[in-house]
Amino acid sequence: MISIVDYGSGNIRAIGNIYDRAKIEYNVVSTATELSKAKKIILPGVGAFDETIEKLNSSGLKAILDKKVLEEMTPILGICVGMQIMANSSDEGVQNGLGWIPGKVKLFDTSILQKPKIPHLGWNTVDIIKDTGLLRSIDSEQGFYFIHSYYYEVENESDILTKTFYGDNFTSSINRDNIYGTQFHPEKSHSNGMKVLINFAEL
Prior knowledge:
single chain, about 200 residues, alpha/beta, Rossmann fold, 6 helices, 13 strands
């Protein structure tokens, strides 16, 4: 059973629709008690870094997430801000991140962008750096849908799953052990995104 965390942020219905079509079981959880039973976790995210961290803290979900992910090694997939909060900190705010994968979330340097503007919006390709099964059978030239102004700069190259070019190469997905994250939105990325969510279910 995949548990999608509802903490007031993210495209939960869109993710659920994909799993409904694929006939993959999931539930939506919003309390620590519900989350404690999860076998796999999806942490969606739409919004700002500090706001997302504050929601996890106020809901009591942060402590159980740490336990599930770091102690029980439960597989987790963070999407967009749901990935960014896995960092230590962010240029977007002052709150400490979860710190699961060392790094900092940084604002794009608009002086080097292809179209010197943010957010980075729309479809873009990905370069696969390592293969963990999450990206099995995707079309890297078709790419994925992005909407973001900040990117996750990891400390260790070994934690990079894919890179994407937008003025410069940035990390567009990450992985360390049971922890996965995508800057792009699988739930908005048609067949490629469906494959990512199904692959996560099958890992």
